[in-house]
Specification:
This protein has 190 residues and is α+β, with helices and mostly antiparallel strands. Helix content is 45%, strand content 12%. It has 2 domains: 40 residues, no CATH class; 139 residues, Aspartate Aminotransferase, domain 1 (Alpha-Beta Complex), CATH 3.90.1150.10. The strands form 2 sheets. It has a 3-stranded antiparallel β-sheet with strand order 1-3-2. A two-stranded antiparallel sheet has the order 4-5.
Length: 190
């Protein structure tokens, strides 16, 4: 591969990391080992078994119910792999231009170490869509205690919504489609 230099080598490294996301996945994930490919094959076989599907979908619905019981605004009915939280309702004091979905994602991580993803005005700029946060349930990983922890964490965040501020973009990649992978944001008062 021929790489054209456009400045310091640090810029080249940054561009290569962004390009890798498009073709290889996020650069910290590494490549797929043989055991990972074998696990994927097992997963594909399991994913069509009725017993597995009932358990998986049941777990996602259990998370949606637990979140709702903790005062978290969730979209109903829940899907088969994830629950979607309405970040605009969860943090109503944060306007769309201050990214309430990203603020909710950061708050959940800071409050209880819960990792999730924003799929609203930050991930999809210049579109009109709800301020969503997706809580995907990892396959064969979560137990009831995990679901309770996630629901309680989001419940505390929503209960103390005024403690959380909006965000502004400090730095973002040239490729807009990679914005939510590698941009830098900071808290701002709303």
């Amino acid at each position: 591969m021929l790489i054209k230099r456009h400045g310091p080598s640090q810029d080249c490294g940054k561009r290569l990391k962004q390009r890798a996301i498009l073709y290889e996945g996020f650069y910290t994930y590494g490549g797929m080992a043989g055991r990972d490919l074998a696990a994927m094959a097992v997963g594909l076989r399991e994913a069509i078994e009725r017993e597995y599907l009932d358990a998986r979908i049941g777990q996602v619905h259990e998370l949606a119910s637990a979140l709702a019981d903790n005062g978290v605004p969730v979209y109903q009915p829940a899907g088969g792999h994830a629950v979607y939280v309405d970040a605009g309702d969860a943090l109503p004091h944060i306007p769309a231009e201050r990214f309430p979905g990203q603020a909710l994602v950061c708050a959940a991580y800071r409050e209880g170490g819960v990792r999730t993803v924003e799929l609203g005005s930050f991930a999809f700029p210049e579109t009109e869509r709800p301020e969503l946060v997706r809580l995907a349930v990892p396959r064969r990983r979560y137990h009831r205690e995990h679901i309770e922890h996630v629901a309680e964490t989001f419940g505390r965040v929503v209960e103390n919504a005024d403690d959380w501020s909006g965000l502004e973009v400090v730095d973002e990649p040239e490729r807009k489609e990679l914005r939510h992978f590698s941009a830098t944001l900071r808290p701002v008062d709303v």
